[in-house]
Amino acid sequence: MTAGEHTSVTKGERVVVGMSGGVDSAVSALLLKRAGFNVTGLFMKNWEDDDDDEYCSTREDLIDVVSVTDLIGIDLDVVNFAEEYKDRVFSEFLREYSAGRTPNPDVLCNAEIKFRAFLDHAVAMGASRIATGHYAKVRERDGRFELLKAADGSKDQTYFLHRLSQEQLSRAMFPLGDLKKTEVRAIAKEAGLPVYAKKDSTGICFIGERPFRDFLNRYLPKKPGLMKTPEGRVIGEHVGLAFYTIGQRKGIGVGGVKHSAEGAWYVAAKDMARNELVVVQGHDHPLLLRNRLEAADLSWIAGAAPSADADYGAKNRYRQADAASHILSLADGRIEVGFDEPQWAVTPGQSMVLYREDVCLGGGVIQ
């Protein structure tokens, strides 16, 4: 919901805004303050292993949040969720990588930290709602809450929010849902917010901009093995299956064959039993394309699974256009989805999220 969209929200009501140090959360707080809400900013510290690391921006981000809250004229609370984050998000992240899958910790972070631990903390502070700088919208219809895509399709973040429950959505506000990113930066600049031109953070929050393999190597042991073609030809050695993802091209350690029509090598599969990495040549190799997938650990925003006799749009990764899809089977906590067109590099551990036009229905973890 945008700042004034939800009729049951009254002016003067206390709203706690999760503030990261970026322009999106800063403008969210500003818009809510302008709309007449009693706004408090909250800075969450979710990672503390690398406080003095060149890649850790926590200290710099907190300084930016303090500057913004001072300028807007709202109180700021700082809370440490590092222990909860390690227990609920990071441990699962390592488990998934150890099993050869490629998890999306941002999905779990939203469900377990930003809209659970943060929400609980905000309610304890006396707030009735929380707000974040996510690009998404919430709509109440007949007493149920729907998660809708943002107006700025290039920034829409419903993919990362698809595991939220009715209770979480009923208390969530997304002030940027109807704005384009360019408009958000313009509002920040006009208001004199020091973060108006700050670069968007990329990557996983606890890794930052550091080399991913270097980070993972601190927590997972290297377990070298053979790198083979689908036909069984050995073409090299991998450093450990956990360090690769389906569709990966860079960093495999195998160059393309000169004057070969097939081109670059891609990771196509992981044989966990044999500790072998299967690689293929060519972006459109048949082993990189899938007509269907299976997902488990399902989460549906409405509380019930969608109908199997309808057509849907599906995202198998963030920044992917919705793929025309249909449900092949849905039973025992698992769903099988078929696609009208083959999908490239469907990756176990990533989330498959279903949409009905602009409504995000939920999804599950690709098996």
Radius of gyration, in angstroms, nearest whole number: 22 Å
CATH topology of the largest domain: Rossmann fold
State the CATH superfamily name of the largest domain: HUPs
Class by SSE composition: alpha/beta
**The biggest beta sheet, please?**
6 strands, antiparallel, barrel
Give the termini separation: 33 Å
Query: pLDDT average, as an integer?
Result: 91
Q: Low-confidence stretches at least 5 residues in length (pLDDT < 50)?
A: 3-8
State the helix count. 7
Main sheet strand line-up: 12-15-14-13-16-17
Q: Report the sheet-strand fraction.
A: 25-35%
CATH architecture of the largest domain: 3-Layer(aba) Sandwich
Q: Please give the CATH class of the largest domain.
A: Alpha Beta
How many domains?
Answer: 3
Taken from the alpha-carbon principal axes, the silhouette is globular
Order of SSEs: EHEHEHHEEEHEHHEEEEEEEEEE
Q: What's the multimeric state?
A: single chain
Care to count the β-strands?
17
